[in-house]
Design a protein that fits this description.
Structural class: alpha/beta
Family: Belongs to the UDP-glucose/GDP-mannose dehydrogenase family.
GO molecular function, one term: oxidoreductase activity, acting on the CH-OH group of donors, NAD or NADP as acceptor
Number of helices: 13
Shape: elongated
Strand order of the largest sheet: 3-2-1-4-5-6-7-8
Helix content: 25-40%
Keywords: NAD, Oxidoreductase
Number of strands: 15
Largest sheet: 8 strands, mixed
Distance between the termini: 53 Å
Oligomer: single chain
Order of helices and strands: EHEHHEEHEHEEHEHHHHEHEEEHEHEE
Bound molecules: ligand SAJ
Protein name: Nucleotide sugar dehydrogenase
Organism: Nocardiopsis algeriensis
Strand content: 5-15%
């Protein structure tokens, strides 16, 4: 086949789908028989691909397998396996080294091997390359080796595999050229980084940049409350600068599988070289402190109405890590709920994407009717800005609202925002 994708999750499957739609002969490899069987039955296990998408892939010759023999006849093999955080704080490379070992035992001359999993600079050359060369083949001579960071943004309706520029970095110039040629067959823009380390670092720079800038506005949110500054307004005003500024917004904390995780791979690696990476450590500390700050703001709001957190009915709106997707990984909703329970609050949650939700092993009661839930709660805390939570609806039904996402400032379709695209509603409702 033209391509074997190892790891058929939220990164590997969309990559395979795009290659299939461009006419490549693609085989999917996964160690999970369940994933393999589901895909071969035309069932998708990721949100960004429908069952119809999988059926189309199968019609075009895609198949999934757990048999590594498929790699011996592959022109290109791309590794898209997870690199979760290990206990020491770096990436757990278990899945990567296992995949490399499997490839090594089935590697044939002329194959291009690409690592896409997010990891610290040096992994491709110091970890993956030696394992592949156990095959007796020499990287850069008998087979090509490159790194290319995945840039999947789950749930993003605008950017997908084909229209997100792809960075590739080869072990050698020829490896880089081979990887660029491969991706160019189904991705509009391919960018050459100098080598594998530069490509590995580009990915960590992208996500550390986000992580640190979110922490910056989170730290500002705390003292702006004291300063009597509406930070959301200042951000909107600053964002009117057409160059040199990118808006980030405060929130209840930073979730997801990328932003809170990836920067640690870098700080882990540089720490082993004896360097601190204080931006990441500070950002981690600030972002991790936001759930406690949400509780402090909740307490203040309730106290202003003569209520206390204990025995108050608190409704949590949105428990996923970001709007309009079902993923709850690292969502700050859970630490917020834990702290509310510890303070004796009676919590319920509402989230159109989450059927049931457990905190500390117990089911949190789910509110079905949004308007009713808002009207019944002593305090509503909006944690995730799902599209359902329209400003006018919140303004009309919520008795007391802690809006941690600045939803109230967003114009509704029939409202005309001011120059900064925001709307100043009755500030009777509070932001973080
Ligand atoms: N967040 C804030 N304030 C912000 C932006 C995000 O609090 O201004 C929070 C979100 O609520 C979420 C977390 O940070 O809890 C992460 O948000 P994210 O928008 O970065 O979403 P992710 O984790 O899906 O990030 C992905 C990343 N994609 C990859 O790593 C391949 C990231 O690089 C993308 O830039 C991001 O999507 C995106 O553009 O949305």
């Amino acid at each position: 086949s033209d391509l074997v994708v190892i790891g058929l999750g939220y990164v590997g499957l969309p990559l395979a789908a795009e290659a299939v739609s461009a006419g490549l002969k693609v085989t999917g490899f996964d160690v999970s028989e369940h994933v393999v069987a589901g895909l071969n039955d035309g069932v998708s296990h990721i949100d960004d691909l429908s069952d119809e998408d999988v059926a189309t892939m199968l019609d075009k010759g895609f198949s999934a397998t757990a048999d590594p023999l498929c790699m011996s006849t592959a022109r290109t093999i791309v590794i898209c396996v997870p690199t979760p955080l290990s206990s020491e704080g770096g990436p757990d490379l278990g899945a990567v080294t296992a995949a490399a070992g499997t490839i090594s035992r089935n590697l044939t001359p002329g194959t291009l091997v690409v690592l896409e999993s997010t990891t610290y600079p040096g992994t491709t050359e110091e970890v993956v390359r030696p394992i592949l060369e156990e095959s007796g083949l020499v990287a850069g001579a008998d087979f090509h080796l490159a790194f290319s960071p995945e840039r999947i943004d789950p749930g993003n309706p605008t950017f997908g595999v084909a229209n997100t520029p792809k960075v590739v970095g080869g072990l050698t110039e020829e490896c880089g050229a081979a990887a660029a040629e491969f991706y160019s067959r189904f991705i509009g823009t391919v960018v050459r980084a100098r080598g594998t380390r530069e490509a590995e670092m580009a990915k960590l720079l992208e996500n550390t940049y986000r992580h640190v800038n979110i922490a910056l506005v989170n730290e500002m949110a705390v003292f702006c409350q004291e300063l009597g500054v509406d930070l959301w307004d200042s951000i909107a005003a600053a964002a009117t600068k057409p160059f040199g500024f990118q808006a980030f917004y405060p929130g209840p904390g930073v979730g997801g599988h990328c932003i809170p995780i990836d920067p640690n791979y870098l700080s882990y690696k540089v720490k082993t070289l004896g360097y601190p990476f204080r931006f990441v450590e500070l950002a981690q500390e600030i972002n991790n402190r936001m759930p406690a700050y949400v509780i402090q703001r909740a307490q203040e709001l309730l106290n202003e109405s003569g209520l206390a957190l204990s025995r108050s009915k608190v409704l949590l709106l949105g428990v996923t890590y970001k709007a309009d997707i079902a993923d709850q990984r690292e969502s700050p909703a859970r630490p917020v709920a834990r702290k509310l329970l510890a303070k004796g609050a009676q919590i319920t949650y509402h989230d159109p994407h989450v059927e049931s939700w457990q905190v500390e092993g117990a089911d949190v009661p789910r509110s079905e009717i949004l308007e009713q839930a808002l009207a019944e709660a002593d305090l509503t805390i909006l944690l995730t800005d799902h599209s359902e939570y329209r400003p006018k609806l919140l303004e009309r039904y919520a008795r007391l609202l802690l809006d941690t996402r600045g939803v109230l400032r967003r114009p509704e379709p029939d409202e005309t925002p001011d120059v900064s695209g925001r709307l100043r509603r009755s500030i009777g409702r509070e932001g973080v």
